[in-house]
Amino acid sequence: MTEQDVKLNFETMEAGDFKAFVKAMADYITEYLENIRDRQVVPSVKPGYLRPLVPEQAPQQSEPWTAVMADIERVVMSGVTHWHSPRFHAYFLTASSYPAIVADMLSGAIACIGFSWIGSPVCTELEVIMLDWLGQMLGLPEQFLARSGGEAGGVIQGTASESTLVALLGAKARIMQRVKEQHPEWTDSDILSKLVAYCSKQAHSSVERAGLFGGVKMRCLKTDNKRRLRGDIFQEAMDEDINKGLIPFYVVATLGTTASCTFDALDELGDVCLSRNVWLHVDAAYAGSAFICSEYRYLMKGVEKADSFNFNPHKWMLVNFDCSAMWLKQPRWVVDTYYMDPLYLKHDQQGLAPDFRHWQIPAGRRFRALKLWFVLRMYGVENLQKYIRKQIALAHLFEKLCTSDNRFEIIEEVTMGLVCFRLKGSNEINEELLRRINGRGKIHLVPSKIEDVYFLRLAICSRFSEESDSHISWEEVKISADEALAQK
Ligand SMILES: Cc1ncc(COP(=O)(O)O)c(C=O)c1O
């Protein structure tokens, strides 16, 4: 066997091939995204559709990139739900932009693991700086930022769910230490069995799950008539629990709930937390991006009273998944409590810069700050603000179209890019309406239910969305309503 044979066996792609592949892929991606609204938003395939389209086994011999490329439409696109189509209105949006896609390519090329500073110094240091940039863009108080010179700072987590859990674990560590000082005779399990955390009934399901993962009780509290968790409701719940011998230690305030995008009364919750030494975590997963526009900052009034804050640039700030920004005023409660420092991860500069593995659940971490750096530089704050404002304006346009038809009602004030609406009448007619909308296949929506009222959620999800798209979506809703009501 010649040296060349050996090389070919292992090295199936030469640099020249790679360049051609990337160029072809760049063309494909651009074509795909720029024409995305022409594709059927949800594919009409059934579970198991894929198996007949691919071989039973992996190929024994290498295939050229052109063969893979030729299969993308047939194998991949036939099963894609097009989240970036202006016809996609389900859930909340997930971000995508050209600068972030290219940054992910470079991240893939560097392919470092940033678990420690020495694992790739730039991976850690760019992240620290990007989180300072982002924090300033949002108007977060300096006490959250690394540039303030204290221990505080930001970190990129994978998801908002992880941030809620990390904050809960920090809060748990803090209360355990306090209670042990007051009651040295109590065991860890004595204390654990008394701990209680809180959130609103409207909090994301990941908050309840954080309680399960953390092994503590999580009470989901009722809200006021605007679906906001208020200070007095929270205080009352805590008093009740304290009377039962329990120990309140953690609350999650949601800014922009998943079901209908309402905002807990952060300022009130903050006062209660300060008076009771309870850790306040802010989950602004979706709506947090809007705080780069100063006119929406009233919704985060009281943020200085929080211990930790989180939002997802991977939702509404054009940074592809995953990029969930989290700030901690006192990361020591997470870093010191769950500290593991095996010899192979030690380095000479320890203590002079964060080793981010201590701030998160997994050990490994990708170079995600690159995506932020590319997006923030190539859009600039002003364009990101324009983007947020435009999407909110498109939601208001849909709201206006909806209110112009007296068969419909808006069931929640529209503050961000989400419109919650329904046909006046029963839940059943609205279920039928959604079945028809999604059944027609032109646009895609998901429902929600609050206090037994079923409604439809229309989220503006695509960076390509224009006014004409809101009109098209409204036409689809109207036609489906005509059909649903005629059938009734
Ligand atoms: C308010 C809120 N919190 C948390 C999440 C979960 O986000 P992630 O998928 O980043 O965990 C969502 C998802 O939409 C959300 O709306």
Summarize the structure.
The chain has 488 residues and is an alpha/beta fold. Helix content is 43%, strand content 12%. Homodimer.
Give structural notes.
The structure is a single chain. By secondary structure, this protein is an alpha/beta fold. It folds into three domains: 3-34 and 43-80, Up-down Bundle (dopa decarboxylase, N-terminal domain); 113-366, Aspartate Aminotransferase, domain 2 (3-Layer(aba) Sandwich); 383-487, Aspartate Aminotransferase, domain 1 (Alpha-Beta Complex). The chain contains 16 helices and eleven strands. Strands 1-7-6-5-4-2-3 form a seven-stranded mixed β-sheet, sandwiched between helices. Strands 8-9-11-10 form a four-stranded antiparallel β-sheet. A hairpin with a 7-residue loop joins strand 8 (408-410) and strand 9 (418-423). Helix 7 packs across helix 9 (205-214) and helix 15 crosses helix 16 (467-487). The protein starts with a helix and ends with a helix. The model has no long low-confidence stretch (mean pLDDT 95). The protein binds pyridoxal-5'-phosphate. The site of pyridoxal-5'-phosphate has 15 residues, from helix 7.
List the helices and strands and how they pair.
Elements: H1 3-10, H2 15-34, H3 65-70, H4 72-76, H5 98-110, H6 121-138, E1 153-157, H7 160-182, H8 188-192, E2 195-200, H9 205-214, E3 217-221, H10 231-243, E4 247-254, H11 266-276, E5 279-283, E6 308-311, H12 313-316, E7 324-328, H13 332-335, H14 369-403, E8 408-410, E9 418-423, H15 427-440, E10 446-450, E11 453-459, H16 467-487
Parallel strand pairs: 2-3, 2-4, 4-5, 5-6
Antiparallel strand pairs: 1-7, 6-7, 8-9, 9-11, 10-11
Helix pairs in contact: 5-14, 6-14, 7-9, 10-11, 14-16, 15-16
The chain binds pyridoxal-5'-phosphate (PLP).
Pyridoxal-5'-phosphate binds next to helix 7.
Pfam families: Pyridoxal_deC (PF00282)
Subunit structure: Homodimer.
Modified residues (N6-(pyridoxal phosphate)lysine): 315
